Amino acid sequence: MGGSGPGYRAREHRAWKLAQQYYLIYREPSPTAQLGQRVAFVIQEYIHSGDVCPFGVSLRICGWNEGRPYLLRSDPSGAYFAEKATAVGKNYVNGKTFLKKRHNEDLGLKNATHTAILTLKESFEGQMTEDNIEIGICNEGGFRTLPSTEVKDPWLP
């Protein structure tokens, strides 16, 4: 998430509602790409109806469908894109550049976690510890956030 807290919560709430509506109708989780498209469409409707960009946040949606991971970026404009690795927030351009250099399809969980921490370290202000960062894992089992006890890296104090 990047942008204002209230704008993020509004988009997150809308995404949850869309996912729940899909589940109530089809009795299965919403495909990630379809959820991303529907969330972006809501923003586009607001913009086209009144030339207003109401939420002012960039949102990432991740999921697992058809045997592979999906990562979608939805911008404040309502545009959405599929990505393999991305960064958000202050200095996100540097983070994305760093990830493009290091990302490959064969990264294991340990190496991917290490790469994520190195990416954060590029623009982190203050001391970065396992208590002030979060790492999320999305796989065929679902999404989970690593507890701080599992966020181990030689770059952390």
Automatic annotation (TrEMBL):
Keywords: Proteasome. The keyword Transcription does not apply. Gene3D superfamilies: Glutamine Phosphoribosylpyrophosphate, subunit 1, domain 1. GO terms for biological process: proteolysis involved in protein catabolic process. Pfam families: Proteasome. GO terms for cellular component: proteasome core complex. InterPro entries: Ntn_hydrolases_N, Proteasome_alpha, Proteasome_sua/b. This is Uncharacterized protein. It comes from Ursus maritimus.
